[in-house]
Amino acid sequence: MDYLKVLLLSATPVFEIRGGFPLGIILGMSRWEALLVSILGNIAIIIPLLIILSKLEKFILKTKGFNNLYMRMVNKARRKAESFQKYGKYALLLFVAIPLPTTGAWTACVAAHMFGIPMRDSFMIISLGVVICGLILLSAKLITISGYSIFW
Hints:
The protein is mainly alpha-helical. 77% of the residues lie in helices and 0% in strands.
């Protein structure tokens, strides 16, 4: 049951792996178990989310009231895509890999969709970013000098 809790928390927006990994530690899992389950939970949502975004966009484009608003937002984002064009897929990888708020797989899926990155490439890049993020979190846990920590 603890595995399911960590898996589900890791698949939710906002918390993702950054919340799932510490929860696994708190629930008594080993560091490696918590890391693996939280990575799997965070990666499991990528493909469904990319598919949902694609379907949602088709629906929005057919809806008169939202069509103009959505296209303005997309065009604005694409105009600011210079850094993405300059650094390419590495920018998306780094975006996911750095464990900061709002830089997880959910936001990366939206960015990948808006920039038109193919689904297969998006999945690979975002998944690798999630794994790197997990390893950074694990490293932070292992580097902790004292046995006391607020988060785990």
